[in-house]
Amino acid sequence: MSTQESTKIVLVTGANKGIGYEVARQIGQADAVVLVGARNSERGQAAAHMLAEEGVVASWLPLDVTDAQSIDNAATRIAEEYGWLDILVNNAGIGVAGDGTPGQASLGAVRQVFETNFFGALAVTQAMLPLLHRAEAGRIVNLSSSLGSLQLNGDPSWEAYDVKLIGYNASKTALNMLTVQLAAELRDSRITVQSICPGLTATDLTGHTGNRLPAEAAMAPAGAALAESVRTGRFADAQGELPW
Predict the structure, then answer these.
(1) C-beta of residue 145 within 8 angstroms of C-beta of residue 172
(2) Which is catalytic among the residues 21, 82, 161, 168?
(3) Which end of the chain has less neighbouring CB within 10 Å, N or C?
(4) 35, exposed or middle or buried, with CB in 10 Å at 0-12, 13-18, 19+?
């Protein structure tokens, strides 16, 4: 690996709005080059333009995490234009109508959620790993949720105990498994992997309900991505460690 400049190359999936946009903005303000991963050309370019107006070096990277060719094209472009990737933030995530309790949820809805929230994150990670290995200290941050905690889901005293969405919750549990297993697989490398919960946030995903705005919610994942030293394989939020 050749000596690299201090500028970090960062990919944030689903970065055209909400928490993803704010994560991109906050990381970009730390003098990183931000690639705005987004499916939609108009939204992706608009987000990159808004970031540029705030002094962030940003560009739209066409990326649909459910499309293998799109993922391959994105990895090829990063390799050709930069040669490596320092930080991958798997932020892209969805919730869909039809998700619900195990006895009532639409199987189609559950599959759709998993395609983006888990399989999409896994596919992007696999494609970007060779580029992350070229970085001096690669970082993977998976945007998880306390709703993915098995322990909390089984605790009747938990404030979100009644939120039983088998598709969404289980997709985040699976994402946490990705974090745990990937951290073990990469334990002898320079790459760290973390699951970070941003908390209930007022975004399109939540119907704009939540006790925090995206800028506040983005602080934990952005901070995890930029921290000089982190413990790999962790599951945490802004307050600290979360139970699996």
Answers:
(1) yes
(2) 168
(3) N
(4) buried
